[in-house]
Specification:
The protein is of the alpha/beta class. It folds into 3 domains: 53-128, Alpha-Beta Plaits (2-Layer Sandwich); 141-375 and 530-609, Rossmann fold; 378-519, Glucose Oxidase, domain 1. Helix content is 26%, strand content 20%. The strands form 8 sheets. Strands 18, 19, 20, 21, 22, 23, 24 and 25 form an 8-stranded mixed β-sheet that branches. It has a 7-stranded parallel β-sheet with strand order 9-12-8-14-16-17-26, with helices on both faces. Strands 4-5-3-6 form a 4-stranded antiparallel β-sheet, with helices on both faces. A hairpin with a 5-residue loop joins β4 and β5. The longest helix has 26 residues, at 25-50.
Length: 713
């Protein structure tokens, strides 16, 4: 009897084909190849079972009573004891211990060890530590105008007692948006830290930026005998070297900065939604934007609740393709539930995978999920053809070309294709598809029919080919222009693009120039649902409206570390402000609005704040029902209407999506936020923790699991 074994895995002889000496040698080589493939597969599977990965062990609500360092040490000891029952001592590593808002820990485990821990009676769920992604001043003025009130018309001013926790890439403390001039003492209930690190001292915090923590891979693994004090001294820094966290924090609660601008664009006063609020920064993402650790995000939420924040802003999440099996293995949903349970409003971005349906993320019903919209400001870069026709395109560029200056030859990408490149690739500016000698010194025209090649990639291809500029013909995402610094770039729709191509084909020597960007204020229509903004319904909770509402998230000016050289125009220094788009930018608008309402109504719960923001939209007249349930205020009196209404834009027409169709609840939820109207909503709905536990029951979770989650076990 033939018996073969590879590693620990026996091979069934029936899969082998015996070969005699008369068969061709090719057959024997095929058999050897088959054996090698089988061996590789089995050895890989065996290695995977013994490879250590980061896992989160979630144990529900923490035990009641006690607090402080002593309790933290006791809980950590208990978590290590639980690990000891499964993991050998020399391989026992604890990365995070959760014990404030909820209980659990993160540790390096093999697949077998994780499976063993999941069977423990105190454990609710065990899941791999996911990698989450970032969902990357005029906006507040626009929201004030939409409200129908003057910004200086006697509206209540936010107090300095509200604290917003921003979980992101860290913070740049020197930004003028975090100046504490005129601010009173830090609220006595604040229990947070200002952690030190390279280029970040305790003195970097002030009465505005009152706390700063950092987590993630910077901390490394914590050995069993390491104390909490040693963990705090691990390498790392709260400083933001990416800019995303600084931008979001200043959007939510930045101080008023007069004369803010981005190289002359978007000039005005920059401010956050709650400029008097305090900011606490929690850094969970790496400097190179490779992602954000789910276990670190859970620890940040746990700390933020204990520190005493009122609102948490999270512009982080999975993509629509990274499906989450259930709510109890989603770190954002888990942390947000326990924060809400303790009276902290959690606001999250909806994701940037729109406009396809069912792309919304961060969709747990206790999360305030935010879609992105445009504001009444646009950035236009005109294209001037040799026949003097002018087309307005969308772009942020600081071109040195001018209306009366030199014109450059125009060439369509398909006309400059290499011998081996299909015309379809060259027309889309596909990398490697263009002949440089046919493009150099000319303005290149490309189309956007291949979604794999982003606008920035097309720009880099054109720049690398020696082009003097790029005209992109693509109607998608025109409302969110990209920043190309000094490189002349402009994006036009299909109608304008067709005229430009006709000009190229009908003219012997077609020429053009791309002019530098100008900002257009009071642009109409606005708001419009951004094309990238993720749409509902949520795949996990289809019966719950998601996103909840919409806020400005396109071309938002906010603070930025003055160190990024990538998009700096020639001869300029890095700017202290930047213009960015994404539901990441919409999220802190709502966090700031929530803090504003909390300061005016300190007793309001997270559910009441969300309800007030969702039920105070600008709606159609009652006699003209449309498609959206809306409850709002008219003439100072609460007015409920359960048929439906559609939010209006600044033309008095129904808000549209990026396609031009009337926006639906799956595009914008309850509509665009109007914080000033939400101060007096008239009618609110206060959803309780009990309601959310009933929801979990309806979703099929067992009573024993729900009791652990709630703390009633």
């Amino acid at each position: 009897q033939l018996r073969l074994q590879i590693g620990l895995h026996p091979i069934d002889p029936s899969i082998l084909v015996l070969v005699n000496n008369d068969e061709p040698r090719a057959h024997w080589h095929l058999l050897k190849l088959l054996l090698l493939l089988i061996a590789n597969h089995l050895l890989s599977a065996e290695a995977a079972q013994h490879t250590k990965e980061s896992y989160v062990v979630y144990m529900g609500s923490p035990p009641s009573g006690g607090g402080g360092v002593k309790l933290a040490e006791m809980m950590r000891a208990a978590h290590l004891e639980m690990l000891a029952s499964i993991v050998p001592q020399e391989q026992r590593w604890l990365t995070h211990s959760y014990h404030h808002a909820f209980e659990g820990f993160a540790a390096e485990l093999t697949e077998e060890e994780a499976l063993a821990l999941s069977a423990h009676e105190r454990v609710v769920s065990v899941f791999r530590d996911p990698v989450l992604l970032l969902h990357t001043t005029r906006s507040w003025d626009f929201l004030d105008m939409q409200s129908g009130f003057r910004p200086d018309g006697g509206a209540p001013q936010a107090s300095g007692d509200v604290i917003i926790g921003v979980i992101d890439t860290g913070i740049w403390p020197e930004s003028p948006s975090f100046n504490d001039d005129g601010m009173g003492d830090v609220p006595s209930r604040w229990r947070g830290l200002c952690m030190q690190g390279p280029s970040f001292k305790k003195s970097s915090c002030n009465k505005k930026l009152i706390g700063a923590r950092y987590y993630g891979d910077q901390l490394g693994l914590v050995a069993p005998n390491a104390s909490l004090a040693r963990v705090a001294l691990s390498t790392g820094s709260p400083r933001d070297d990416v800019g995303h966290g600084t931008h979001c924090a200043s959007t939510a609660a930045g101080a008023i900065v007069e004369g803010a601008n981005y190289y002359g664009l978007a000039w005005g006063a920059a401010k956050g939604g709650a400029p008097a609020a305090r900011v606490a920064s929690y850094k969970v993402c790496t400097e190179d934007e490779n992602g954000c650790s789910g276990s670190a995000l859970l620890k940040a939420i746990d700390d933020a609740v204990s520190d005493g924040v009122d609102v948490i802003s999270i512009s982080i999440g999975k993509t629509a393709t990274d499906t989450v099996p259930d709510l109890l293995t989603d770190p954002v949903a888990l942390g947000a539930f326990h924060a809400h349970q303790r009276g902290v409003l959690v606001v999250c971005s909806a994701g940037n995978d729109g406009p396809d349906p069912s792309t919304v993320v961060n969709s747990a019903p206790w999360i305030l999920t935010v879609a992105a919209s445009t504001i009444d400001r646009a950035f236009h870069s005109s294209i001037v053809l040799g026949n003097r026709k002018v087309f307005k395109g969308a772009a942020i560029n600081f071109s040195n070309q001018s209306l009366d200056g030199e014109r450059y030859p125009l060439v369509f990408g398909a006309q400059a294709a290499t011998r081996r490149a299909p015309a379809s690739e060259a027309s889309n500016c596909y990398p490697g598809s263009l002949r440089k000698r046919k493009v150099a010194g000319k303005i290149l025209v490309c189309i956007g029919t291949d979604s794999r090649i982003t606008r920035r990639i097309k720009m880099l291809v054109a720049e690398d080919s020696g082009a003097r500029g790029l005209v992109l013909i693509d109607h998608k995402a025109m409302e969110a222009p990209i920043d190309t610094a000094s490189f002349p770039f402009s994006q036009v729709g299909t109608d304008a693009g067709a005229q430009i191509l006709r000009y190229i084909n009908s003219t012997k020597n077609p020429t053009a120039a791309i002019l530098p960007t100008k900002d257009v204020k009071l642009f109409k229509p606005a708001p419009v649902v951004a094309s990238f903004s993720a749409r509902g319904p949520a795949a996990l909770t289809e019966a719950i409206l998601k996103p909840d509402l919409m806020a400005p998230g396109v071309s938002i000016l906010a603070a930025m570390p003055p160190m990024n050289m990538e998009d700096v125009p020639a001869g300029k220094k890095p700017s202290s402000f930047s213009i960015k788009s994404g539901t990441s930018m919409a999220c802190p608008h709502v966090a700031g609005a929530g803090a504003f309402l909390k300061s005016a109504h300190p007793r309001w719960t997270p559910s009441i704040i969300r309800s007030a923001l969702m039920t105070t939209g600008v709606c159609l007249d009652q006699s003209k029902p449309k498609k959206i349930v809306c409850i709002f205020e008219q003439n100072g009196r609460p007015w409920s209407w359960l048929h439906a209404a559609t939010a209006r834009n600044n033309l008095g027409l129904p808000v549209a999506s990026s396609s031009g169709a009337v926006a639906t609840v799956h595009d914008m939820g309850a509509g665009e936020i109007i914080p000033l109207r939400a101060l007096n909503p008239g009618l609110v709905f206060d959803t309780t923790t009990r309601d959310y536990l009933d929801f979990l029951c309806y979703q099929g979770y067992k009573d024993k699991v729900i009791r652990k989650v709630s703390g009633d076990a």
